[in-house]
């Protein structure tokens, strides 16, 4: 997981979450009917970006932030997002 740099702060973290993957992409599966995404083959910052983009396909994300710092026990939470309120 990526840490927020003091110079860039939250804006820098927000930009990193929405940026394109930086690590190598996993090889496409030989069996085209794979039942599981090869998330374990992604570098962790790229996996966090993928999860945020998947969430954004369900509902627009108003705000997203990384949770904690690398190496810290996070109880399985790496990032969190705030969704717009639906008052209708």
From TrEMBL:
Q: Where in this protein does the record put region Disordered?
A: 1-24
Per its record, how is this protein called by name? Uncharacterized protein
């Amino acid at each position: 997981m990526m840490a927020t740099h003091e110079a860039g702060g939250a804006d820098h973290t927000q930009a990193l979450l929405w940026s394109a993957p930086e690590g190598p992409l996993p090889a496409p599966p030989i069996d085209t009917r794979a039942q599981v995404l090869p998330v374990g083959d992604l570098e962790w910052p790229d996996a966090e970006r993928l999860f945020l983009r998947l969430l954004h396909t369900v509902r627009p994300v108003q705000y997203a932030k990384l949770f904690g710092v690398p190496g810290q026990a996070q109880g399985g939470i790496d990032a969190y997002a705030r969704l717009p309120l639906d008052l209708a």
